[in-house]
Amino acid sequence: MNRSRTTVVDIAHAAGVSKSTVSLVLQGSPLVNEKTREKVNSVIADLGYVYNRGAANLRQARSKIVGIVVNDLTNSFFAELAVGMDMVVQSAGYVQFLAHSGESVDRQREVIASMRENGIAGLILSPARGTEAADLKPLIDSGIPVVVVVRNLPGAKVSTLLSDNYTGAKAAVRHLVSLGHTRIGFMGGFLDTAVFAERLRGYRDALQEAGIAADEALIVHSAPSRAGGVAAVERMMLLADRATAALCLNDAVAFGVCDGLRTVGIEPGKGFGVIGFDDVIEAKTAVPALTTVSVDPQGMGQRAAQLLLKQINAGGNEQESLVTSVRLVVRQSCGAPVRNNHLEEMA
Fold this sequence. Notes:
With about 350 residues, the chain is an alpha/beta fold. Helices cover about 45% and strands about 15% of the residues.
């Protein structure tokens, strides 16, 4: 092998690892385990490869590529978020390098490393579950601007753009209480995400404000997806004292809850009040039209891209933390005022 032309790909083949892993080793990232690091460094020494950090930095400085990594492109919210980002990025003369982590931290590390190899000018990240502040340290240390959206990463020295999850959840539950509901559920989501924690806190505080004791049995954990919504309804139907309405973690869960209710003969908006969170495009045309907390995903994506471009143009990584306002959009799925427990009548 001609040592003067040895590439990262050559090292990856020789070491039996991915190109992204080699890149992480070259960058001194703490994300690579020691055994793999030693193996890659041994191959680098054997092949006589020299990492030209100056050239890498020069590529980055001239880059017109913005990296965008989202945790779940199968969810309409994140697709709309990415569309909003692309609108701003393209108008500014940049090209987006979009990747889907699928809630895998390992996959996320791989795609971010690959983006660094391609010399991105900055990164917008909606973190996968389990992401830690340390995962972004290599990017920050190299001076690449980073904006984290949707899910907060405490301790990460990056800019953040979040929605007002607490206020939105509180407004939704207050509305259900105003309709006469006292058995209000919270459906969808996992304990280890900040979004779940913030929306659950708003749910609990609204119940407390109304003098309604929170029933832990009505907090149903499930995947934050349409299938998760169906599963949540199946679990709720096993309860002796069921809910008459629910705030769902997001619109995807809410659509699934509506599907699950129909399966057991309950019509959403009539026999059970449903409120989602996000206000994706399909919310308006769903049957019944979905009452939801509007986050404006496209607008949020545009603001995230504007924040990143501001940092790129300033040539630094000055941290900003923004929280976007939300509003409750009342449609048909939350139903009319209730005077009794419809679920008990239909059981």
